[in-house]
Design goal:
Blueprint: E1 5-6, H1 7-17, H2 29-46, E2 56-62, E3 69-72, E4 86-93, E5 96-99, E6 101-103, H3 105-109, E7 117-118, E8 123-127, E9 133-138, E10 140-141, E11 146-152, E12 164-165, H4 171-187, H5 193-209
Parallel strand pairs: 6-8, 7-10
Antiparallel strand pairs: 1-12, 2-11, 3-9, 4-5, 4-11, 8-9
Helix pairs in contact: 1-2, 1-4, 2-4, 4-5
């Protein structure tokens, strides 16, 4: 089933794949809504699996001079989607972009003077609170400036069975098979071992397509005078 596809079509096929309904039969409205809730549970679970998230997105927000900490999420200081994690960030000052180091709570705790101010911040701490996340900049920027945040693009919840699902290639198949397993468990129907194996493979294939290439780096002090190192020999 290619994407885009109506959620009800995916649900109907999942019921039949689980052998709860026969070919040509359709679930009742109540059964379809229950299946939709299960489908949204699967999507929510995928949102905490980095490889299940496709691509990254940039959100541009604006800092406030003299303010270090901001809430992020709907109704927050930064009124954008609440990210699970922030993987990159930079501020723009006088038309020039300055990357920020993403630090953890323990690293931020080591900062002696957390109220220190300067025109351009150097570090960003993100705390994944709920319902709003918290961003802290250090040093505290002395003026307003654009702040660009890079985060994984989260999978959105499906509001109703008529919603058209438009996810990357491979996602619809994996969702259909995983939902069939959830439905079989819910209705007390034995899960076909072949279905379970196929569902795991489909999810793995989908996640593999979301894998991103990362550039490795080496401390210059470890390199030889030529500026490179043979990884096979270590020289």
């Amino acid at each position: 089933m290619p994407s885009p596809t109506p959620a009800i079509d995916l649900i109907n096929r999942s019921f039949r794949l689980a052998k709860i309904l026969a070919s040509g039969e359709t679930p009742t409205a109540e059964e379809a809504n229950d299946a939709l809730a299960m489908l949204n549970d699967i999507l929510e679970n995928w949102s905490v699996e980095p490889l299940a998230l496709w691509g990254k997105a940039n959100d541009v927000v604006t800092t406030v001079g003299g303010q270090a900490t901001y809430t992020i999420g709907p109704t927050g200081n930064f009124n954008v989607s609440r990210p699970m994690a922030i993987t990159g960030a930079y501020v723009t000052f006088s038309g020039v972009d300055f990357p920020l180091e993403i630090v953890g709570q323990l690293q931020y705790n080591e900062v002696s003077l957390k109220t220190q101010q300067q025109p351009i911040p150097e570090q960003l701490l993100y705390v994944n609170d709920f319902p709003l996340g918290r961003i802290t900049l250090w040093p505290v920027p002395t003026q307003a400036m654009p702040l660009t945040l890079t985060a994984d693009r989260l999978l959105t919840q499906i509001p109703n069975t008529a919603t058209v699902i438009n996810y990357p290639p491979g996602a619809a198949k994996a969702l259909r098979e995983l939902l069939a397993i959830e439905l079989a468990t819910e209705y007390g129907v034995p899960v076909d071992p072949q279905l379970r194996e196929t569902a795991m493979k489909s999810k793995a294939d989908y996640k593999r397509s979301n894998r991103q290439q990362y550039r490795s780096s080496t401390d210059p002090g470890l390199l030889n005078e030529a500026g490179y190192m043979n990884w096979r020999t270590g020289t």
